């Protein structure tokens, strides 16, 4: 059975969709009221023109503390290890002055969009490390980081510039929807209209996939990542996670035993049966050097894996190391998710016939 997927977008198309947003403008408020961005101000080369909707000073409250932004920022440092904060800024048509190479260098869609325009791409060895002196040297007006626990770093980052982060507690990876975060960033940068446009465009994209693939409706799906023989298989489509929301919005349902991974995401031999679903996706990470679209030595040749109904029915989709789908889905931002789904959706449709 053939499948329909009219909304396939090449990587360059994804970049154009997000980097060519037009900014709207409004007049500034009169003296004596909080400062509002003016449409007549000179547009920064790092940001689109202000929309004139945000009033400054702007106070943000997060689980880690309070940030006060006195005026519209122009120099934005994005520092999160998965670079989803960089992705959100690029989606709004902006360019950061810094980004974290740990995630940025794994995301070709981000590098193509802005690699030659970012002043500093810094390297760290772990997600909770920040080169404070280097960030300070970039002279940011604000520091943006989404998707991480800032309990031990918020105060030190705040000594450099006001910190923009989620207004909800961090409860684990994939726990803070990018839609909430881009609205926060949009308000900070006086680009709320642009933020809503990114969200509506993404919603239309997902709706198009759902409409073009009615066979997805009601089928259960498990999404996993193979990290190689050392770390093994990780279950990613946890109940209530962003990844699960992506697939359920396309018509799929939560796998019956997804709750088995509430304590650990590691798929042990004892838990292997719990990943079974109508559709099983195994994305290869950088460590999955042995992964091919047909098989993964050390995983798919095991008796317990071969006993899965998804494998026996031919409903297993595997992406190899060179595919950007694994990292793109893991960042769970508007650009990365499109990149991942452009790869995964046709293969899912082909697998289930």
UniProtKB/TrEMBL annotation:
GO terms for biological process: iron coordination entity transport. Keywords: Lipoprotein, Signal, Transport. SUPFAM superfamilies: Helical backbone' metal receptor (SSF53807). The keyword Lipoprotein applies. Residues 75-352 form the Fe/B12 periplasmic-binding domain. GO terms for cellular component: outer membrane-bounded periplasmic space. It is found in: Cell envelope. Residues 1-22 form the signal peptide. This is Probable siderophore-binding lipoprotein yfiY. PROSITE patterns: FE_B12_PBP, PROKAR_LIPOPROTEIN. InterPro entries: ABC_transptr_periplasmic_BD, Bact_iron-sidero_bind. Coiled coil: none annotated. Belongs to the bacterial solute-binding protein 8 family.
């Amino acid at each position: 059975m053939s499948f329909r997927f009219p909304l396939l977008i090449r990587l360059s198309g994804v970049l154009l969709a997000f980097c060519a947003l037009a900014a709207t403008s409004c007049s500034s408020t009169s003296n004596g009221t909080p400062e509002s961005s003016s449409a007549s101000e000179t547009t920064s080369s790092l940001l689109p023109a202000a929309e004139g909707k945000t009033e400054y000073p702007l106070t943000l409250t997060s689980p880690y503390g309070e940030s006060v932004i006195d005026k519209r920022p122009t120099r934005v440092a994005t520092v999160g290890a998965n670079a989803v904060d960089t992705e959100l800024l690029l989606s709004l048509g902006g360019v950061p002055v810094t980004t974290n190479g740990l995630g940025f260098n794994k995301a070709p869609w981000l590098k193509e969009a802005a690699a030659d325009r970012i002043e500093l791409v810094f390297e760290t060895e772990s997600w909770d490390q920040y080169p404070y002196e280097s960030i300070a040297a970039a002279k940011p007006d604000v520091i943006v980081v989404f998707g991480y626990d800032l309990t031990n770093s918020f105060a030190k980052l705040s000594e450099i510039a006001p910190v923009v982060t989620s207004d909800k507690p961090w409860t684990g990876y994939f726990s803070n929807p990018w839609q909430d975060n881009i609205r926060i960033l949009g308000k900070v940068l006086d680009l709320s209209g642009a933020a809503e446009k990114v969200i509506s465009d993404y919603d239309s994209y997902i709706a198009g996939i759902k409409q073009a693939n009615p066979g997805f409706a009601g089928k259960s799906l498990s999404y996993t990542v193979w990290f190689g023989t050392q770390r093994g298989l990780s279950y990613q489509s946890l109940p209530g996670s962003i990844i699960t929301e992506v697939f359920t919005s396309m018509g799929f349902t939560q796998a019956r035993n997804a709750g088995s991974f509430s304590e650990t995401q590691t798929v042990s031999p004892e838990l292997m049966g719990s990943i079974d679903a109508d559709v099983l996706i195994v994305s290869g990470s950088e460590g999955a050097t042995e992964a091919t679209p047909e098989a993964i030595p050390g995983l798919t040749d095991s008796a317990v894996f071969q006993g899965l109904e998804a494998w026996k029915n031919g409903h297993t989709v595997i992406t190899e190391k060179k595919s950007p789908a694994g990292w793109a889905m893991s960042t769970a931002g508007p650009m990365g998710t499109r990149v991942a789904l452009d790869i995964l959706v046709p293969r899912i449709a082909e697998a289930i016939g």
